[in-house]
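[step 3/7] inverse_fold.run input=structure_tokens len=346
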């Protein structure tokens, strides 16, 4: 493990870049700003080290970024309808930063916070952030700890823990944009995706689940067998048109449990790299950078076009506090929120 200066925030606090290695073919660089994964290098089919995440070169770019590039997302990943919810008879109004809704924790969610590093080894990094009561409208003082661990099996394991002093809601995720071809392919159109779920959540016009559990059937949302992304997203299907492609959650479980489940497999023919995603979360949200427009220049020096990368966000479902048929995101004092996600490379 090594660390180096990466820049200074407007409040004068220093941001550090931590470099981890498993000593056997996997390296990751992580910022203590936003818990951002700046780079993740794994060997391709020829043994060449390949960076499989999108990102930027400078802290200024990450500060200005509105895409949650590589970051930890909270307090509540994804959308909450009307930026409000009711808890124990009280209505809480959240920051409105996405139409009339709250997205990814508000204007300054966990992706815009400087995290305190509380432990590190050559292959692991533990960070903590304490979100004060009322931040972005959320109740309770919430203490969140996240650990990144590189295993000998070329896995990036992410472990989340959180406690609160007041009843609150929580939904955390990691928002890296993966391109397993090391961006030699400008988009992920040729990537093959397999999702171990035959149920997805259709969205309303505001990209919020309408509450239905929909079988994928013979629709373009069926990834029970590997399917090329570029053949699915242009399909003439109303759900694809709402968000210019995939921006949907798939159901892995209908209740909370701690069982680690194989959620998805992503494969890039160009590099031969496979990424398997495992999680204890009830769902996985797939987003393919549908709103990138070529105006954002990445660390490679090239602009990122639409579909430049894919997010595989393990999480609870959007708008769960307002959807009683979804697994609960309630966290009470005396309880501990725990969640584990593994990205395994081969």
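[step 3/7] decode complete -> sequence:
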């Amino acid at each position: 493990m090594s660390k180096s200066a990466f820049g200074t925030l407007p409040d004068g606090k220093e941001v550090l870049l931590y470099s981890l290695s498993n000593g056997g073919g996997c390296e990751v660089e992580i910022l203590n700003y936003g818990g951002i994964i700046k780079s993740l290098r794994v060997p391709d089919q020829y043994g060449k080290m390949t960076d499989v995440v999108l990102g930027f070169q400078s802290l200024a770019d990450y500060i200005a970024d509105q895409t949650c590039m590589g970051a930890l997302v909270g307090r509540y990943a994804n959308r909450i309808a009307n930026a409000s919810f009711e808890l124990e008879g009280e209505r809480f109004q959240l920051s409105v930063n996405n139409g009339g809704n709250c997205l990814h924790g508000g204007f300054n969610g966990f992706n815009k916070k400087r995290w305190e590093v509380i432990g590190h080894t050559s292959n692991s990094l533990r960070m903590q952030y304490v979100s004060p009561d009322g931040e972005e409208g959320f109740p309770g003082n919430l203490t969140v700890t996240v650990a990144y661990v590189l295993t000998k099996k070329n896995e990036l394991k992410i472990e989340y823990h959180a406690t609160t002093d007041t009843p609150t809601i929580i939904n955390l995720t990691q928002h890296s944009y993966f391109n397993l071809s090391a961006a030699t392919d400008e988009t992920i159109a040729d990537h093959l995706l397999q999702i171990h779920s035959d149920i997805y959540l259709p969205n309303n016009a505001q990209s919020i689940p309408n509450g239905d559990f929909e079988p994928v059937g013979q629709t373009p949302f069926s990834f029970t067998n590997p399917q090329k992304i570029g053949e699915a997203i242009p399909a003439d299907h109303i759900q694809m048109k709402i968000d210019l492609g995939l921006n949907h959650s798939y159901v892995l479980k209908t209740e909370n449990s701690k069982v680690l489940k194989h959620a998805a497999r992503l494969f890039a023919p160009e590099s031969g790299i496979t990424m398997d995603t495992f999680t204890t979360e009830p769902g996985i949200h797939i987003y393919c950078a549908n709103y990138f427009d070529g105006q954002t220049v990445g660390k490679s020096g090239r602009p990122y076009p639409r579909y430049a990368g894919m997010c595989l966000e393990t999480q609870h479902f959007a708008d769960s506090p307002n959807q009683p048929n979804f697994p609960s995101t309630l966290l009470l004092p005396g309880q501990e929120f725990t969640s584990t996600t593994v990205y395994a490379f081969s």
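[step 4/7] annotate
The helical segments are 59-64, 229-232, 238-242.
The first strand starts at residue 2 and ends at 8.
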